Amino acid sequence: MALKERRDVERPDSRVRGRDPRAADALAAFKRLAGVDGAGARERDVNELRSSGRCRVRAARNDGRRGGGRRVCAGRTGFVRVRGFVTRLSTCTRSAGRWSGAEAVFRSMAEKSLVSWNAILMGFGMHGRGEQALRLFDEMLGAGIAEPDAVTYLAVLCGCNHAGLVDDGLRVFKSMKVAPNVKHYGTIVDLLGRAGRLCEAHEVITSMPSGIEPDAVLWQTLLGACKTHSHIELAELASNKLRDMGSNGDGDYVLLSNVYAAKERWSDVDRVRDEMVRNDVRKTPGFSYTEIEGVAHKFLNGDKGHERWEAIYRKLDEIGSRIKGLGYVPDVSNVLHDIGEEEKENALYHHSEKLAIAFGLISTKDCAPIHVIKNLRICGDCHTVAKFISKAYNRVIVVRDRARFHQFEGGECSCGDYW
């Protein structure tokens, strides 16, 4: 293949892999690849699988399913191998919030490779289905078809982590038949930290075997747990470790600031913020996406830039009245600023995920599911509001935050309020 022809194949592929943030463009790029034949067929094999992967990240669910069902001729080199393609479909399906459908796809596979087992196990893990992940893991071991590898154990540990199954997670970790790496240790730190066992989490970091050095992610994980459980001493220790390692991410500062704010140590909050200014560190703004009729709509906190912002805010007023009638009380503890209670309620009122959900309500048919992608961790109040909305409006709401999926239905969340 000539160099120019090869670039013609790779350019749309770079969009499919997600360098261009527009999901519609990625899918269009994938569709253009259908014209490649002969010598370009192997590139198309890879691109088509990656297109399915982009569908899951951008929640372009219908296109993902259409891609999953395709069996494309590839000229002289044959066609895409079905097993690998169904694995990608399984990944696409469970990542769009349809974990039960993903298991049905997985069960329908005549041959299940290690990659297939890992994909479905990670799907259960991301949805907080820790008990199902453990059950499937036992089934995999009993079948004797595939030996678990490092990814398998990581997937099961993630399931235990998101479901709060601390003892099960520790048991699986201690039974590993492959050498654990820093990601496995990181999951255990997160598992213990979420459960409030912060000293044990710190001990895991400091007692890692030689050859595995604690990285910034481990200390950030501990710092995040300290924020959740308001442990100032360990938060300061983790923050100092991150500073010594040269980490300068905005999250390092924000988490420590939030620990101080939770204890109303406003002078320390100001000190951390001043340090951010000196080091030219800017806080990543929270934003949320929702997709309506193939168009992605982005919302920032307090956003009034959308063409329908007035209708969105009217819907928010209606939502507030309706869910307060069901018992909702704003959780102002999530607003870590030195301001009055009324101002805190107003700040909560306009979080980006609430705007996205309100827009979904006014833009879709009754009973249609609403899907939202959030770049940060969903806050406790937004989580509570989403539960009330799912009950008040009889909607299924799927929120994908930076850590996991939350599926709200009938006033409950798939995470069991543990995330």
Automatic annotation (TrEMBL):
The keyword Repeat applies. Residues 1-21 are annotated as: Disordered. GO terms for molecular function: RNA binding; zinc ion binding. The keyword Transport does not apply. PPR repeats lie at residues 113-147. Residues 327-419 form the DYW domain. GO terms for biological process: mitochondrial mRNA modification. GO terms for cellular component: mitochondrion. InterPro entries: DYW_dom, E_motif, PPR_At4g14850-like_plant, PPR_rpt, TPR-like_helical_dom_sf. Keywords: Repeat. This is DYW domain-containing protein. It comes from Asparagus officinalis.
